[in-house]
Here is the input.
Amino acid sequence: MSAKPERQRPERTFIESARRAQIVTAAIETIAEVGYTKTSFAKIAKRARLSSTGMISYHFAGKEDLVGAVTEEVMRVATEFMQPRIRAAQGYTGMLRAYIEANVELLAHHPVHLRALLEILNNARNAAGEPVVDATTISRIGLLTAHLRDGQRAGEFAGFFDPGLMATAVSGAIDAVITSRPPGLDPAACGRELADTFARATRPCSENPDDPKDT
Amino acid sequence: MSAKPERQRPERTFIESARRAQIVTAAIETIAEVGYTKTSFAKIAKRARLSSTGMISYHFAGKEDLVGAVTEEVMRVATEFMQPRIRAAQGYTGMLRAYIEANVELLAHHPVHLRALLEILNNARNAAGEPVVDATTISRIGLLTAHLRDGQRAGEFAGFFDPGLMATAVSGAIDAVITSRPPGLDPAACGRELADTFARATRPCSENPDDPKDT
Amino acid sequence: MSAKPERQRPERTFIESARRAQIVTAAIETIAEVGYTKTSFAKIAKRARLSSTGMISYHFAGKEDLVGAVTEEVMRVATEFMQPRIRAAQGYTGMLRAYIEANVELLAHHPVHLRALLEILNNARNAAGEPVVDATTISRIGLLTAHLRDGQRAGEFAGFFDPGLMATAVSGAIDAVITSRPPGLDPAACGRELADTFARATRPCSENPDDPKDT
Amino acid sequence: MSAKPERQRPERTFIESARRAQIVTAAIETIAEVGYTKTSFAKIAKRARLSSTGMISYHFAGKEDLVGAVTEEVMRVATEFMQPRIRAAQGYTGMLRAYIEANVELLAHHPVHLRALLEILNNARNAAGEPVVDATTISRIGLLTAHLRDGQRAGEFAGFFDPGLMATAVSGAIDAVITSRPPGLDPAACGRELADTFARATRPCSENPDDPKDT
DNA sequence: GATGAATGAGTGTTCATTCAT
DNA sequence: GATGAATGAACACTCATTCAT
Here is the structure.
């Protein structure tokens, strides 16, 4: 999230950066196609037309390092796509809608990247059994929770829901839609309807007179 | 989903059924603990106090067969827990609420089973890379979709949402809540709030006068 | 050092014990021939006429486990050879002589075993860089030190040397002789002369009137 | 052992000599720290702050060549330290004492160099499995043997021991002391006591009236 | 001359499955 | 029918060395 994330400590040669990018691309495609579990260095090397798996180990410190690079790349693409859309929206409600719509629309533009990311989030574990990339690293639920809480304080969202739980629900619903790739529905309509759903669920009481419960 | 799923084609001796159950139990615990990816016959055999992995291969046709048996068992437990709660509910809205609440509550009673199931749904792939157990196999989204559509026709749910998409969203939200095990919230309250959320989202226009969109 | 060291927890099948012994034998020969560093599972498997290295991993928990088994076996052979000779000796001086002579003579009877043991002691390290089998495990220097100290108290050895340092010197001298396999000297004479050397070095002042230093 | 061992056949540029020295130093430190077995070009390059292992291969014909250079350097340091001390001693007995003491004292001044040398002597093997640097190459035992024999002829040492065997014993004892780094004993006292030990062991009969054996 | 990139054989280990007993 | 033994492909990763630039 720093201004120049690519200017990290080890200065990389042009050719090395190119190789790394090539490997990362092959890794993304492989993970999206066969799933994280069945992805091996051998398959990635084959897709990247590399002669050996040793090549990947040469450019990346290990499997975790490669997974980290893949995550970074996907997040870069996703952020580049979503951020302008979210920034253009007005108000807390508008931004929530923009976030949901942009996220679903992202599926239409970068389905492979998104599937790879979900595979990593769900499956990648290190030797200790802990997630290699946990959800907080990519800061989805955290940011969403903060946004919902701020919107509640500003009075744009209803006060009767727990922000953390709602953020989890929103994320889960989006991921499920992404994973299931609902056939017959175009992504734009899909995103709009999902945004509608959570707009109704978070609307304040005043606009929602007979709310069934307020905890 | 047949009435007696365990009395399938090959009639099993008592001792064989016991062995299979023992292995399935060990598999569920192992998958829940270390994740599907890191689960191997060796670890299952160790937990089941079997001396060799050959034993598992003897009782199950292969990894897919074992995963299928695990899924069946988890679904049996889940159905046994949820069905009475859902049947006791009144109307489409009440049943939807009961379904969501029962599902979250199930986490409190059978966390190991649920985690194992989610691991399998997310990770288990056959040699061709296709999911071994897809979501439709366990008929969650399908049944939910049908329920939502029927409720729409009966006028209990609003008509402006797509049943399939809403079913996907509901399932995804529940799974996310289950996976994240929100700290500081007790399961009952969690389930109630999640049910509230989708109650608001599916309520008809009449009770929800100024709905922002109706596609 | 327990009475029945082979009656450990896991009861092994006859055939498994045979395989383990076969592998241990091949490992000893390989280590003695090419050195610990150049010994790999592949070479051991080849010598043992096993089809794959996986076989070794099947019978031993890992490289460390195999090295431990090799050490145990060599120590078993060495103890079996040396113990009766040492027990037959009289007095502290006699036992020290017997120990040295038996150790050198052991080289003539089991040169391969001894070379393998020395290779392991000098080279085998675990991932953390620590010796897999340290000298104290096989309790050579520890026992020797105690023997020298007791002999000093009993007045059989001179009091002017440090028992630990002398034990180290004795062990080092023996190992050097073993490693260099002095050509042209028969082992029996070799052992006798080495024992003479340390007999002179440890003899009390009374028999050694003009000792140059007494710290 | 030539007068100017570093001025060998190929005349090297200043910068090349510097690079070689830098690599040799890094190699010594690495071998001493992690052991010869776990030392690789990669680790040496890292310590020498070189960007690639190719650099090492460029300056040295191979691993054996590097090990040779390391040995030369350590021997240079050791000789520089020990030679004046030995030359200053009087008589065969005095020189033997000086040699032993200087060798142990060397450990206090250059522990890293010494550990590296012992690692190489014990572990370094070429492809054929033969030692890359054998003990005779560094001429320790050879020179010592000659010294002992000359001292015997001169009557300073007893005649009843075999010079080669005694030289081996002396070297082995010193190496064992060096390797074990006896805690709680300061190096000077250590060296003195070890020298005492072999002084007693090599003293002629006349000063040692009741010698137990004379072969 | 010097270097970063690449190589491919080799490391120990795990895996699901098969088979003779 | 049941089981311990064996298989061999696959795994991530390291190695010393080579080579085009």
User: Anything to note?
Assistant: The mean pLDDT of chain D is 84.
